[in-house]
Model the fold of this input.
Amino acid sequence: MKVTIASRQKSSKFPVTLEVPGTASTIKVADIATALAKKYPKYYPDRQRLTTEDKKVLTEQSLSEQGIDESTPIYFKDLGPQIGWRTVFLIEYGGPLLIHPLFYYATKLIYGSSIEHSPMQVATYYMVMLHFLKRELETLFVHRFSHGTMPFTNVFKNSAHYWFLSGFNLAYWVYGPWFAQGTVAGARNDVWVYGSVAVWAWAELSNLMTHITLRNLRPPGTRVRAIPYGYGFDLVSCPNYFFEFVAWTAVCFLTTSWSAFLFNIVATGQMYVWAVKKHKNYKKEFKDYPRNRTSMVPFIA
Done:
């Protein structure tokens, strides 16, 4: 079958006609992407966005199921150099894992004097380290991504959030001498410390359970989407975000540091935006999607 690839961007390479084995009823978007990459190796499949004339992104259905035949042009957009989502996540979460030990152990170098850490500082350090170690392990062994890559330049923007807000910002202010052992600001009773750790641990385990539920919805090597059910999903579409918010709120309550609140506010705001978008997509894609669910916060939003 002959397929015409046009471009909305100015390019001397387009339009181009490709010979793709098969018919409109058997050819899928992956076949088109492979054929285009074979002709122009620079445009490997993850770098391509293929759409119809009315800008609808082509799905995994056959061309005929999407109303495309030999007379219908397919529009191409170059997404630019790409990087794998798994790699991006490893870089993002790796920042705090490097930064927090530096501020925690090199207090004399950073603050000018050795510090005996208060129980609050010790608990916060291990909570933060375990949180991001969990995220790294989930990236390697749990997550299955619906999109394999993202634009390379985005890795700097995404990493800045974790490296600066939950890295340098949180570490510098929480492990400083003003919260050290023997200070009024660093004093916490046992109920305060252990209560915060208990809530944090529950939220982290709950977050992990929701990630496992989402993983089990998608067979390996596919982009299949389905309605999630089970723990957390009875009330909200994105309980993983809600439990993450609870975990960081426990850190805020334990530290009482403005730096923790700043990170939590920014992170929660971003997660809420993502949750609303995913909630709308669920309702649009699945006609039988449960109506009682909210986006992220049970019964509220």
Notes: The domain at 2-79 is CATH 3.10.20.90 (Ubiquitin-like (UB roll)). The CA atoms of residues 118 and 182 lie 7 Å apart. Strands lie at 2-7, 16-19, 48-51, 74-78, 82-84, 149-151.
